[in-house]
Amino acid sequence: MQLPKVSIIIINFNGKHHLESCLESLLKINYNNTEIIIVDNNSTDDSVNFISKNFPNVILIKLNENKGFAEPNNIASKVATGDLLLFLNNDTIVTPSFISEMIKPIQQDSDIGICQSLLLKPDESIDSSGDFIDTLGVVYNSKTQISEIREISSARGASMMIKKNLFEQLEGFDKKFYFSFEDVDLSWRCWIAGYKVLIIPKSIVYHLGGQTYQKVKNSMAFHGFKNQLSMKITNFESSLVLKNMLKFFIIYGSRELKIWFDYKIYGKTKLSSTKYENNIAPNPSFKIIFNSILWVVNNQKYLIQKQRKVNSTRKISSKQLEKMNILCKKYF
Asked: What is the reported pTM?
């Protein structure tokens, strides 16, 4: 039986210094039914010429502006001819069996919608063993060492595989997210639709990470905060939205006040544990918070329409997801 075709999709913006090692590692994988699609976000570092000259078999899509992460992946998915889509960051180095290890479970169980590779840093420490979402919609990155396949709330877009027909059913990434948390939103909606999200520890990918963040941290802080607010509106049932939003701001405001107080008095903060790290940017400026809330207000019609669409086809309730520990009880 022929193995399913996998379309590997990489979004690039001025990442020429990462692309060679990433693409060279992809040439060494032990899975031979693939295609590689790179969407270039109007890079100015000669990335396009580098790809065309050195990797002519790559399908290259050139955009005339930087469209972030969500929309370029959607654009590539329409070009992809694979049965499975594999979203991969350009600052990764893959191991030979990373695809074949993800293919096994996704073929064996039709209820599996998304798989994530175990992401390691270059020093072999854990970069991410999956994301978890609490009952208020706050996202946590797990750094737990794992050896068995397990369910996670969300897969990381640095190396995540999804069935193409499911990606189309879910209408892809939300392009209004631009970048940041679009993978969480997609995974959450995958669970709501009745499909599982798993991490596959034998599928190992090394992720340099943090390179893009340093260049666009203010933009990422804005998109990250407004996208987390957006998910709380769209992915909970209507009866939970206002309650959870109010509770979030009360707890979040109290946390930020304590951080400010500790910093003023003791000159230090305690923001995260070693096993789980919440993904709310520490101390976002008032301007970022205000602009995020303003964006939500200005886009309320869109968010309400999306919320209705998500919940009109809901297969698993938030209460059920809580019982399954997909929505976990951990407030920051």
From this structure: 0.92
